[in-house]
Amino acid sequence: MKFDPDFPLHLLDYLALRMGCEYLSDLRFLEIDKRMQMARVLLAIPVGAAGPLEWNNTLVYLTGGHGERDPEAVKAQLIASLSEEGG
What we know:
This protein is mainly alpha-helical. The protein has helices spanning 11-19, 32-43, 52-63, 71-83. The longest helix has 13 residues, at 71-83. The mean pLDDT is 90.
């Protein structure tokens, strides 16, 4: 399944679908191997496929991190955080 920016599905909803989560909130409680898998899924999504606000909302929701102005920086921070052992 590929993220389609023309399909009205929020980035978080897409991640929940890809990760096999029944509830969106399940994304926050994934084991490290699944978090790393989610980071790989995010790597494949072009930054332009979602708006800056959507990237920021995803970062804040999944990691508690602070938003950035640059979507590239947000994506990089999100991937780095999900890839950490301590998660």
